[in-house]
Design the sequence.
C-alpha cells in the first residue's frame, strides 16, 4: 500500500510526485537548497477536470513529503496517516466553504504557513480550490509564493491553469491530471467489491469522475436520482410539465448534495466535540486537535461556552458549503443531461460512438426519431447556457435558471 493508491489512472503524475518527494527528503540533511537542486519545488499547481483527483493527488503528495519511510509515501506510518486525515500539525488545509475565499483568510494562512515546521520536514499549505480565491486573496498568496520561507510548500488545486492568476501560475510547477479511463475506474470499484457489470455502467456514465462513479455504485438513491434527471426530456409536454420537471431536477440535485455533505458534516461535528471533550479548555482549535487538557471546574465551564460558539461557527460553515455543493451537484445533473442529448444527436447522425448513457438508449432513440439534429443541437446549447449562467451568476436562483432551461428544451 502507498499514498498513491487513491490516485486512479495517473501513472505519470505518480512518477513526478514520487521523484519530487524523494528529492524533498534531502532537506533533512542538506537544507532547502540541496532539496531544490535534487528536483524539489516549493510551489505546485494541480490542475484537472472535476473528478480527476487533483486534491487527492495534492494530499498524497503532502503525505509523501512528510513521510520518513523509503520510498516516501508508505501510507502506513503516523506521518502519512495524520496528513491523509487532515490532522497533521504542519498541514493547513484550505477548502473554501463558500463560493470564494477572501483576503483576510488567506493572509492569516500565509502567515501561519511561513512559520517553521513543528514536527515534519515541511510546513504545507494546501488550497483545494485556488480558483475560488478572490483576486485580492490571490495577490496575498502571490506574495508568499514569490518569497517562500525555507521550509514551506504550497499546493494549489484548480480545474485548469486559466482559473488562477497568470502571476500565480508562473510561480508554480504545474501537475496535469486527466480524467481516468473507464477501465481504471472499473478496476478500482471492483477491487472495492462492486459487481463488475454495475462498475462498468457507472464508470461510463460518470464520464471519468471517480467520486461520482463510486457514489452511483454504492448508493441506490443516487442511481434513482440520476434516472430521474435523465427522464426529464420525456416530461416536457406542456408548460406545467416543464415547471414540474425543473422542480424535480433541482430537488434531485439538492438531495444528492445533502447525501454528499451528510457524512462529512457528521465527521466534523464529532471531531469538534471530541476536541472539546471533558477536561479540554475553551481554546481548543476548530481543526479537531484539542489543546493539552486542563482539569478543574473552571476549565469545564469554559468548555461548554467555547464549544457552543465553535459548534455554531461550524454549522455556519457547513450551511455555506451546503449551498455550494447544491450548485456543484446541479452542474453534475446538467452534464448528465447534456450527455444524454449528445447520445440523441449521435443516433440522429448515425455516428458509430459509444453512448454516454448506455442504459437510457430507448428514450434517446424515441427522441432521435421524433426530432432533427438541428433541434437537438439547440437543446444541447440550452443546457450549456444554463450551466454557464449558474456558474457566472452567484445570486441566480437555481430553480429560475432550470425553469428557463426546461422551457427552452420543450421549444427546442
Ligand atoms: Zn509514510
Sequence:
Amino acid at each position: 500500500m502507498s499514498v498513491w493508491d487513491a490516485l486512479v489512472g495517473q501513472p505519470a503524475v505518480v512518477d513526478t510526485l514520487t521523484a519530487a518527494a524523494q528529492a524533498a527528503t534531502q532537506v533533512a540533511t542538506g537544507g532547502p537548497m540541496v532539496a531544490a537542486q535534487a528536483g524539489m519545488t516549493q510551489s505546485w499547481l494541480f490542475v484537472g477536470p472535476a473528478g480527476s483527483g487533483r486534491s487527492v493527488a495534492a494530499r498524497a503528495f503532502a503525505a509523501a513529503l512528510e513521510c520518513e519511510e523509503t520510498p516516501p509515501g508508505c501510507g502506513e506510518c503516523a506521518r502519512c496517516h495524520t496528513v491523509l486525515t487532515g490532522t497533521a500539525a504542519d498541514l493547513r488545509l484550505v477548502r473554501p466553504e463558500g463560493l470564494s475565499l477572501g483576503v483576510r483568510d488567506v493572509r492569516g494562512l500565509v502567515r501561519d504557513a511561513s512559520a517553521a515546521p513543528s514536527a515534519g520536514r515541511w510546513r504545507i499549505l494546501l488550497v483545494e480550490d485556488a480558483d475560488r480565491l478572490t483576486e485580492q486573496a490571490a495577490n496575498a498568496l502571490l506574495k508568499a509564493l514569490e518569497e517562500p520561507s525555507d521550509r514551506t510548500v504550497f499546493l494549489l488545486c484548480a480545474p485548469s491553469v486559466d482559473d488562477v492568476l497568470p502571476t500565480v501560475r508562473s510561480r508554480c510547477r504545474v501537475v496535469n491530471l486527466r480524467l481516468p479511463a473507464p477501465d481504471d475506474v472499473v478496476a478500482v470499484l471492483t477491487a472495492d467489491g462492486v459487481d463488475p457489470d454495475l462498475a462498468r455502467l457507472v464508470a461510463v456514465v460518470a464520464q471519468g469522475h471517480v467520486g461520482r462513479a463510486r457514489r452511483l455504485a454504492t448508493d441506490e438513491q443516487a442511481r434513482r436520482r440520476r434516472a430521474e434527471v435523465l427522464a426529464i426530456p420525456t416530461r416536457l409536454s406542456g408548460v406545467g410539465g416543464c415547471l414540474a420537471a425543473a422542480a424535480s431536477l433541482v430537488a434531485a440535485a439538492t438531495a444528492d448534495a445533502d447525501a454528499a455533505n451528510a457524512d462529512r458534516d457528521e465527521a466534523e461535528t464529532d471531531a469538534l466535540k471530541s476536541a472539546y471533550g471533558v477536561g479540554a479548555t475553551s481554546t481548543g482549535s476548530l481543526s479537531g486537535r484539542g489543546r493539552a487538557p486542563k482539569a478543574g471546574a473552571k476549565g469545564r465551564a469554559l468548555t461548554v461556552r467555547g464549544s457552543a460558539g465553535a459548534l455554531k461557527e461550524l454549522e455556519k460553515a457547513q450551511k455555506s458549503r451546503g449551498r455550494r455543493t447544491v450548485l456543484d451537484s446541479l452542474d453534475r445533473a446538467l452534464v448528465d443531461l447534456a450527455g444524454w442529448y449528445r447520445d440523441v444527436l449521435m443516433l440522429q447522425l448515425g455516428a458509430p460512438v459509444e453512448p454516454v448513457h448506455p442504459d437510457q438508449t430507448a428514450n434517446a432513440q424515441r427522441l432521435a426519431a421524433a426530432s432533427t439534429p438541428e433541434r437537438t443541437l439547440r437543446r444541447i446549447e440550452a443546457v450549456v447556457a444554463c450551466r454557464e449562467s449558474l456558474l457566472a451568476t452567484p445570486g441566480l436562483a437555481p430553480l429560475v435558471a432550470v425553469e428557463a432551461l426546461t422551457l427552452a428544451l420543450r421549444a427546442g
Summary: Residues 278-304 have pLDDT under 50 and may be disordered.
